[in-house]
Amino acid sequence: MASTATTPSRGPYIAVITNRNTNLGIRGFMLFSIGVFLALVLNLLQVQRNVTLFPPDVISSIFSSAWWVPPCCGTASAMIGLLYPCIDSRLGEPHKFKREWSSVMRCVAVFVGINHASAKVDFANNVQLSLTLAALSIGLWWTFDRSRSGFGLGVVIALLATLSTQLLVYNGVFQYTSPDFLYIRSWLPCIFFAGVITMGNIGRQLALYECKRMSGKTHQD
Amino acid sequence: MTVRERLREKISTAFYRHGLLCASYPVPIILFTSASILACCYPLLRLPLPGTGPVEFTTRVRDYTVPSHEPQGDLGERPDWYRGPPVAYIQQVLVKAAVSPWDSTLVPVDVFRSPLGRVFSLLEEIRNHVHNDGSGVRSLEALCLQVTDLLPGLRRMQTVLPEHGCLLVSPGNYWQNQRELFDSDPDLLKTVHQHEPKGLHTSATLRDLLFGVPVKHTGVSLYSRKRVVTYTITMVLGSYDARFLSSLRARLRQLHPSVNCSLREDHMVHVHFKEEIGMAELIPLVTTYIILFAYIYFSTRKIDMVKSKWGLALAAVVTVLSSLLMSVGLCTLFGLTPTLNGGEIFPYLVVVIGLENVLVLTKSVVSTPVDLEVKLRIAQGLSNESWSIMKNMATELCIILIGYFTLVPAIQEFCLFAVVGLVSDFFLQMFFFTTVLSIDIRRMELADLNRRLPAEAGMPPPKPGPLRPREAPPPPRPSPYTITLQTPAFRNLRLPKRLRVVYFLARTRLAQRFIMVGTVIWIGILAYTDPAGLRTYLAAQVSEQSPLGESGAGGLPPHLGVASVFPGPGGDPASTLSVLPAPAEPTPLPENQSQGHHGAPREGVPHQAQAPPLVPQISWGAEDEEGWRRLSFRHWPSLFSYYNITLAKRYISILPVIPVTLHLSPREAIETRHPQDTRHPPPFIGMYGEGSKQVINPLSLSRVAALGLAAGVLLVLLLFCLYRVLCPRNYGQNGVAHGRRRRGDLPCDDYGYSPPISEISPLLLRGHSMDIECLASDGMLLASCCLAGQIRVWDAQTGDCLTVIPKHGSCLYSCIIGGWEQRDGWDTVGVAEPENLGGGTEPGGGVFDEDEGYPLRRRTTPRPALFEDQPDLTPLIDTNFDSQPSSHLLLTPPRDGFDFGGLVERAYLEHEPPSLGAVWAMELRGNLIAAGRSSGKLELWDAVEGSLRCSNEDGVSGITALAFLNNRIVAARLDGSLDFFTVDINKPLGLLQYRGPPGRSNMPPSPCYSSEDVISCQLTRSVQCAHQKPITVLRAAAGRVVTGSQDHTVRVYRLEDSCCLFTLQGHSGGITAIYIDQTMVLASGGQDGAICLWDVLTGSRVSHVYGHRGDVTSLVCTTSCVISSGLDDLICIWDRSTGIKLYSIQQEVGCGASLGVISESLLVTGGQGCVSFWDLNFGDLLQTVYLGQSSDGQGVRQLVVLNNAAIVCDFGSELSLVYVPSVLEKLD
């Protein structure tokens, strides 16, 4: 008797959201688009270094590098952004440090700033450039992350990404605008590291919403 | 005490004092801060205007050498970009030509055809000029800048601009520098015009490039008034050779002497171009700004619990911005000139400095106890956060200092700005923001006082006013018992998301405002960047103020200096630059000129001409000296950019022009005519008329005006038609009704959407004679107790009264269904009947067995609740028992009805007062009612039979609260002691039958005690001094008993062994509300308005927030949030995990404080004679259900949510059962 029970009056939209796989998909898509966008913008920053005052065409300079670079960056950032919260939950140490959107925004801004500095500031030599960028990246990690798992994952991914990039360059699939090979290699890992930290931060923040919803659901069940 | 602690303490006290100071003298401190901001920003006035205009530097031609790459320290006036060779040297030959004397037989085309034709011979002359001296033979080919291909996108210009050779441009380029093409061109103007870009353009056009003078100065027009044609031949030289140039100059002078020309020829101007922001750079810049705004938005969103959220957010932003300005100002004051692009690094500076401190400060101040004085609150909040603020600041300074030691100039400069910015930001935070905060908080307190005063004075509350959209003032409804507003299903109330977005856009008129702002910005950009616009005007202002701009007419020393960096006072350029002891000698003429070929002046030379229209006068003025200034500042960059040469951050040197004057005879003009030239309409202006100058301009102006007017009228008509088509006639009238919505009117949500109306009738359970004191339910049964000590048990499903306790005698009328009105006091104690509007179909339907004394379980025949369409039967039923003893209540023996009043009264009088005492607490589990009386007696009643099963009189102090969990009863007494009882049944527990569905989280399945069992209740343990003061709240769940007392503490006991686990301290007032559920979440609220969340497992405090001014009256948790209500009539919804306030709902003054959560997203609150349903996700009022006719006076004090989605609340002496049909959904 009295088999009626209360269910929250949620619309079908929310119900879709609560579906775990859909949610994962949405998160992945958001991270992917963020990654593509950042890749395009930062690529533009890098391109400026060697281009004339009047680029012949803006569109062509946006897509001046190979077309597959932004999707690759997007995919990578989606993976990283999903991986970070996953690792956090596996390790059982939820990330509690500065979990706010404002902090995430700050992190993104600093990341763009690091890219900006590497593109615009004239360094005396490559060692100085690499050292400065490394210090900035570590600072980024310390300011916004401070988790060991984040650091480890960042270093590993940065090394892997650098390695794959170098392989691509060796095979001639991809070429930098600047022919200086060593120059490129010096700053690449740092940028990768900072990017991983940033995307991880975004991914964790996005996952926070899902966590809340999930916990609510399990309690209810 | 370590150094650290001592330091911490010192910092804390210093901050405390500072906070007191700031809060005490707000106005002087704000004035002082503003003054210091202004003072620090003062040096900014000396900075150049932002912009990417070129910068100039002038040197003398005579001793010019190509500057070396190494910076030379001794030349202080030399700008730092003046290093190395320039990109190119520009040598212009300025040609002024006229046909003179003018003849009436000439046609307008003659004005420019033959003068333009002379360009080819001049070009020939220049190309072939060879300078030969001892060192070798030089020609233009050797010196000029060799260019290669045009950029790929400029194919259409290939015929006009030179490729693969010298960059030498002149109007001759229109005809590929071939005289034959020129001669055979029937329409010169058309040729010139066909290369002009269509539409609006702001940079240099091809015509400017080739003519080298602005269009209106060329004189190539049919309506030229002066009949003088001006153009230049521009040579771009890759290397500088003074001798070649001077010989060329001399040669041209010799061929075409300019008699009255006194142009100075001793200065060359170096023009440095800054980097221009192109689209490619704009995108990253815009991105950083978007990120910055997102950061600011997300930061300021966290400001809460203040009077004016936006005001404080603005103050925070102002703090950061003005600290940046101060930083730049201070750096400039101490001699550091910013070299970085300000717009680019600005977002990063803001992000580095951050808004965090400001927010931390606000939060800290806000979370201090509200009952303190404002001064003390500020001081306390400041000193609480002092250590973390100082620590953060020290960390940031350290990071920046590390950055400083990277020794990269750009980063060093950035760090310097950041350090000064941080320090000034700290200063502003401490003085400016703190003071603003104190003012804000004081305002809030005043406002709060104003709001509460009338309520406390017992006056009717002021009208709701334009407070917040979420207040819930339910005005009395004219029709009783019908309520409700909105649709049967709550779900339908939530509009689809996209509609919400659209409505939001429509409400805020976002799109229009956006377009408006965009238009304004666009116009501003146009005005700024247009060649003839603001920017050039500004540049001209700057260069005018600089000593460079004017030509030194009076033998001033040659000006050397950087234009626009030192825009000295316009009046005396000499005084600022007289440091340079330059020889003030007259213009030295090249020696070659002394050959003096003056032979060819004709009669028409200017100073002889009396009639200006007749003889066009060629005059050379100071403005011709640097004619390139009148061109767009993008002239040279765009010329070079066509060949993929950038001028950004580089400079070009412009050599003094070579003037050439050409006088052509009318005969020559006629000879060079093309046959078609005469077919042009003859000039309609009088040949000698003065009025000709007015003709051209008014003509085109009036044409444009007429066109514009016509277009405007058309546009208005079109819009009007659109409006007519799209909008109904009565749009405006109905809109008013939608705009403002008053509660109690026809409900509609914020978007003007009013759903179909459905009505829910609350089921009134009548029977109690006095106000209901206690209410308990286990889901199936409902027990209520009134002030008189009478307990009634109701069926929670149907609302039927099952039992009345105490019974009187053997005959008891447990329930009579009918329309009895409760008229006076005690007469009808035993025969009270529940009002059952919906169930009226079966009055007294033979279900009760009078002789047995208790009703059958009516649950076996569940009746559908058909409440919707039933009329109000109350007035129809004759309530006069005397006259109609058994007309429709056949089963009721008349005698009972008659002599009942006296019987009960007697029984009551002899029974009640001495022995019983009022029931202060009651609990219902299974079919046992535990009642705690003021006498300290604990009684266990059978809920179905109404018999007393056992009682315990161990304690003497009144029982203030009861908890009944499993087989244990916990009683809190007035003296602060806590008694644990065990209910023993002489039947093994395993045989207990459980009934009912698995309850919700806080309702464990209750065992059912059958009537045969012997039940005993034994005191197992008594904690004598559980609290120092009376226990106010007692809650039990999950094997824990939690008590709250007026002694400011909360205690947690284990239920099994009644052992005290924790004593939780943290409140600064008595505990007024506690919530605990199966998930071990414990929340407590106190008289101080604070809400604490505790971890029951560890006894640690999870969060501590101040949400209310006054007592927290009620607390409920859902899985994601905590809901609290307070004496301030505010309902606050907090995030459970973070303790952040999500939102609050302002209710009407004097509303009840009872709360209940029906489902995860549905909140119900009791009000004045009504209950309101809220959507927890959005904080919207879903529905208000009015309980009775007289909504005034009686508030809902208790509210119990049953697990069949009904709520029960007390309403004076009545109970009200409200079903919430929309949340009834079958699970299985």
TrEMBL record, chain A:
Where is this protein primarily located? endoplasmic reticulum
**Pfam families associated with the record:** INSIG
Membrane topology is: Multi-pass membrane protein
GO BP annotations listed: cellular response to insulin stimulus; cholesterol biosynthetic process; SREBP signaling pathway; SREBP-SCAP complex retention in endoplasmic reticulum
What does the sequence similarity comment in the record state about its family? Belongs to the INSIG family.
Classification via PANTHER family: INSULIN-INDUCED GENE 1, INSULIN-INDUCED GENE 2 PROTEIN
Primary role = Mediates feedback control of cholesterol synthesis.
- For this entry, the protein name equals Insulin-induced gene protein
TrEMBL record, chain B:
GO-annotated cellular components: endoplasmic reticulum membrane; ER to Golgi transport vesicle membrane; Golgi membrane; SREBP-SCAP complex
Q: Segment Disordered: which positions?
A: 455-479, 574-613, 836-855
Locate the compositionally biased regions of type Pro residues.
459-479
The residue ranges crossing the membrane are: 20-45, 277-298, 310-336, 348-372, 393-411, 704-726
One GO biological process term is: SREBP signaling pathway
Which positions does the entry assign to WD repeats?
1064-1104
Q: Which UniProt keywords apply?
A: Cholesterol metabolism, Cytoplasmic vesicle, Endoplasmic reticulum, Glycoprotein, Golgi apparatus, Lipid metabolism, Lipid-binding, Membrane, Repeat, Steroid metabolism, Sterol metabolism, Transmembrane, Transmembrane helix, WD repeat
Compositional bias (Gly residues) spans? Answer: 837-847
One family from Pfam that matches here is: Sterol-sensing
Q: Where is the signal peptide?
A: none
Q: Molecular function (GO) terms listed?
A: sterol binding
Q: Which family does it belong to?
A: Belongs to the WD repeat SCAP family.
What name is this protein filed under? Answer: Sterol regulatory element-binding protein cleavage-activating protein
